[in-house]
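RECORD TYPE: inverse folding
INPUT: structure tokens
STRUCTURE:
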């Protein structure tokens, strides 16, 4: 066997390190300046992960974009949305590099792209180039940054594997000078069973966290008591420099009692599972502009490959059934791509699924005095109980009883003596004081089996079920019930939880038997013989159970959905209102509402609107969603066929069929009829305004010079169209035609003549 000398080994090792340094010293970045990120790999985008990183360009357009590798042009995609002008380079090993939102290309790339556009008379192109047909070298300028497509000026940059899987550039060869650790801001506990609620009547609690005594260590002041299965979420971010823009944290690891419970890392993303972003992040927080809240447990439908749990329960604590009662130590470790870490440390107290103390017996010597005896659950010692006190509900708060005494007996039993006004009218519970805080045990006195018929309720569809809140006028603890009906048939009975003397909360998860609910009633007793005292007609659906679950709202609108549209079953509510001034509001239909306004869909569902008659405005009608923040209708992706319009929606809100009466408007045209211009390369620019349906694609904006089709760049956010003549115009008179067409076929045309002075300049561009 041949061996290398020590000198040769040392040289090769040094050479390898040198090559690594060269590969990672920043010279392969596509911008020749200090790299600053505005968005990170894996950031939340509605319906998909952010598959690359966004590089800031200081709000400027036209910065040179350098090729990071030796390779060849693989693909160019041109559109008005998405990445706008996008360029793809493939290196010698097959890795793909993507550059988005570009403004222009150098001649060897620009020429074949424009030739294809002119030949097809279409701006939109998706061109693939033969291998090595257009070679590029590392350090060569291959494009210029811009703001085409969606967003302000920046450069979107991706690295993909040879089989076209997006890779995190920061963990695949593109390093940054980053010594800033991630930051944690909030911690959340989410109940995941069928019925549990926190004491405030919610299913999820957020707590702010604070920096600890050590650098990059965060702590939670509260030690929360939990006794139902729950998942954890963290709200935090990473940034590459002090004061820099925030990105999602690359790696999060949850440890409970030093055992790894859950881990997620954003090293790569699969296009097939990119929709898992809506269950990797807290979707409702994200659409409310808190886009960095991450789940540390697996929800149904989360097939993202970078999330991992060692347990069948997917990181949910309390599902295994053998969890130890007592204090548990937890920590979340956040790590960026370069090894900077931060820790969030906290404790929680885990207890039995029911009460800690069970009422054994009660002795009532008089109407104003009672003695209660309690026995604790097996293993109660692990909870670290210091004392037990009796609490009485006072309005919205729990407070001490003036005349009460609690005595600890053998084996942990408790004797409670209570005096005062008639005991039977007091709502009492035990407050169990531990070394870490107090626990509200269940009620043991004062809940009357039958109350007065003055109970009222309201309801709301929430993320994972239906919340019903009951309010009583009398300040006494009443037992109560909630009944759900469909067409006078009782579907089920649910029992609210006591919250205060006048407030009761009932959480109802979706169930197959609640597939259709049109009536809810409440009663001040659990006894079915006691009549209900408040009722409401509703229009609730539990969906996600069957392949097809069409909701026929009226004789015009049908909501077409099914199991494929949802990760898990859920409730939705549908309402519709006839509008008397429809024509003034451009409305052809009723006003339809779907609740909740935001919820997670695995696939968009269909809204199918069937129009009456054969009005001339039928083809100018489309289903729109109401943007409440901007107070305007947003035209959805509509398909019109045989007087039926079908649109897709990704969630709830307000909808209506809207008529677009007006053609698009052209404003600010920089070419004036009859005027002369000094350059044959005079650009043509104008604004495109449309009231409702808007501009769909490149076929909606046509510019011709002397009858020759021209390439038009259009920014849908700024609504500006710019055309640079494909061929330099010769001196003399020229004819300009601009034709604008909106989505429903309304046309605006502009024709004029102008002149060019001077000599003819360059040829084709």
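DESIGNED SEQUENCE:
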């Amino acid at each position: 066997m041949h061996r290398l000398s020590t000198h040769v080994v040392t040289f090769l090792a040094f050479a390898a390190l040198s090559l690594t340094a060269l590969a990672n010293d920043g010279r392969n970045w596509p911008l020749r300046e200090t790299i600053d990120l505005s968005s990170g790999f894996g950031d939340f985008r509605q319906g998909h992960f952010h598959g690359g990183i966004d590089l800031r360009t200081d709000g400027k357009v036209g910065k040179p974009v350098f090729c990071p590798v030796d390779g060849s042009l693989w693909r160019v995609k041109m559109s008005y949305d998405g990445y706008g002008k996008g360029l793809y380079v493939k290196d010698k090993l097959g890795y793909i590099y993507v550059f988005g939102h570009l403004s222009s290309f150098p001649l060897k790339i620009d020429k074949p792209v424009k030739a294809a556009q002119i030949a097809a008379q279409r701006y939109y192109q998706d061109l693939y180039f033969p291998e090595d047909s257009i070679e590029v070298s590392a350090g060569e300028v291959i494009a210029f940054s811009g703001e085409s497509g969606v967003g302000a000026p920046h450069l979107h940059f991706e690295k993909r594997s040879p089989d076209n899987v997006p890779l995190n550039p920061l963990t695949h060869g593109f390093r940054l000078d980053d010594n800033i650790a991630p930051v944690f801001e909030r911690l959340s506990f989410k109940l995941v069973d069928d019925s549990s609620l926190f004491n405030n009547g919610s299913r999820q609690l957020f707590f702010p966290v604070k920096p600890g005594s050590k650098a990059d260590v965060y702590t939670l002041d509260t030690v929360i008591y939990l006794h139902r299965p729950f998942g954890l979420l963290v709200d935090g971010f990473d940034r590459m420099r002090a004061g820099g823009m925030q990105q999602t944290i690359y790696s999060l690891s949850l440890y409970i009692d030093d055992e790894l419970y859950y881990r997620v890392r954003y090293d790569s993303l699969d296009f097939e599972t990119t929709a898992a972003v809506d269950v990797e992040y807290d979707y409702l927080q994200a659409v409310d502009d808190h886009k960095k809240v991450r789940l540390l447990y697996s929800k149904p439908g989360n097939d993202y490959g970078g999330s991992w749990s060692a347990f069948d329960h997917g990181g949910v604590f309390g599902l295994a059934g053998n969890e130890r009662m007592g204090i548990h130590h937890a920590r979340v470790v956040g790590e960026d791509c370069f090894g900077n870490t931060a820790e969030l440390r906290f404790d929680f107290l885990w207890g039995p699924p029911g009460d800690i103390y069970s009422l054994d017996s009660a002795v009532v010597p008089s109407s104003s005095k009672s003695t209660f005896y309690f026995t604790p659950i097996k293993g109660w010692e692990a909870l670290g109980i210091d004392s037990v006190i009796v609490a009485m509900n006072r309005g919205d708060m729990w407070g001490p009883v003036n005349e009460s005494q609690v005595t600890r007996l053998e084996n942990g039993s408790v004797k409670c003596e209570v005096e005062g006004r008639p005991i039977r009218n007091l709502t009492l519970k035990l407050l169990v004081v531990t070394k870490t805080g107090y626990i509200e045990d269940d009620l043991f006195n004062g809940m009357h089996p039958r109350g007065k018929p003055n109970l009222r309720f309201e309801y709301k569809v929430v993320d994972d079920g239906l919340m019903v809140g009951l309010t009583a006028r009398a300040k006494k603890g009443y037992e109560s019930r909630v009944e759900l009906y469909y067409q006078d048939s009782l579907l089920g009975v649910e029992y609210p939880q006591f919250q205060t003397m006048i407030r009761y909360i009932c959480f109802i998860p979706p169930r197959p038997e609640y597939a259709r609910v049109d009536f809810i009633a409440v009663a001040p007793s659990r006894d079915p013989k006691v009549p209900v005292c408040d009722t409401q007609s509703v229009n609730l659906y539990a969906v996600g159970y069957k392949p097809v679950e069409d909701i026929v709202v009226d004789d015009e609108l049908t909501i077409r959905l099914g199991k494929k549209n949802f990760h898990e079953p859920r409730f939705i509510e549908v309402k519709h209102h006839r509008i008397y001034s429809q024509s003034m509001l451009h409305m052809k239909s009723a006003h339809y509402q779907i609740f909740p306004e935001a919820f997670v869909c695995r696939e968009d569902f269909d809204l199918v609107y069937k129009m009456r008659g054969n009005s001339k405005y039928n083809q100018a009608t489309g289903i729109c969603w109401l943007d409440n923040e901007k107070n305007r209708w947003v035209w959805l992706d509509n398909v019109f066929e045989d007087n039926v319009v079908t649109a897709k929606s990704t969630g709830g809100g307000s909808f209506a069929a809207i008529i677009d009466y007006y053609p698009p408007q052209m404003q600010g045209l920089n070419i004036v009829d009859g005027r002369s211009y000094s350059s044959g390369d005079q650009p043509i620019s104008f604004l495109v305004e449309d009231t409702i349906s808007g501009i769909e694609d490149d076929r909606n904006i046509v510019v011709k010079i002397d009858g020759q089709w021209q390439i038009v760049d259009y920014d849908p956010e700024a609504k500006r169209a710019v055309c640079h003549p494909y061929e330099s115009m010769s001196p003399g008179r020229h004819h300009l035609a601009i034709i604008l067409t909106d989505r429903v076929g309304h046309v605006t045309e502009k024709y004029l003549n102008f002149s060019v002075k001077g000599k003819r300049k360059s040829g084709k561009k």
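NOTES: The domain at 53-167 is CATH 2.70.70.10 (Glucose Permease (Domain IIA)).
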